[in-house]
Write a structure and sequence with these properties.
about 300 residues; alpha+beta; four-stranded antiparallel beta sheet; 12 helices; 8 strands; about 10% strand
Length: about 300
Amino acid sequence: MRIERKVVMDRTSTYAMVFSHDCSDNENVLEYVKKQVQRQHLNCDTVSHKDLLLPGSGILVTATFDRLAKQAEDEQMEKQLADENGYYRKFSVNRFSDFKGYQNKNTFFTPAEEGRLLHNLLQSVSYEPEILKGFGFHVEHGKLFLDALEDHSKPVILESTFLLHETDKLNKINKQLWASFLPWKELSVNTIRDYFGEDVALYFAWMKFFGAFLCYSSIAGLIMYILRPGDASIDNDPYVPLFSLFMAVWGVLFLIVSFSLYMYLLTCICELVLFIVYTCGCLVLFYHAYMCVLLIICIRTWPQ
């Protein structure tokens, strides 16, 4: 969803509320929603359906830094301290200078934090279902503001709600993502976290780790495919048992390294011993005992 630059110049913490086609012609509902949002000490700018690439008109909601700071204090948001230890503490407006980045209010809250605070402010807006019923809209009582107008209203009042992107920061992240495919380029997880939030950052960090781990199995599979005899099949290929053993070891290492890096070296040594013992065709009981112990370690260590 795009809004033309002449309407919004990529302002930080700008939330778009797009009204449905049935609601766009009802001036009473539009003014009521705008009035309720302004009671939450939020700024509202009305935009027409010609400015939005959507069938309905809408409003753009922004918040001042002081309003976001008050909401962060109410939510007991944790921010990093400015001292050398860098510990985190619950944010307090009265102790604003104790926190890292207090010199610049424009960057004190990350885009992800600003978006979450603004979303929570909008959700806490009060409304009266009786008044909306008088305008011809039946809204379920007891729901959060955005949820009520978007999912629990007949007919629907809000078509969609979303945060606007910051073009400069988004382009910077896109360049870093494409560059991270190169082995010597690191993926800036902190930049993704600051813009999209922790959940999205963890996803990209996990996919980066998973992709790097898959490189080992890909290289091994490619080498064995090149070395295989021309007339060999899956039934008589001499490298299939070796590759199967490699993938078994790779799978165990992947599960262990993904949640317990301190066991990496120990596992490599154990797998080497296991390979020697199993290749010699002796001590089969040792093999089964080793796998049982390894499974128990994985189960007990996984919650960490």
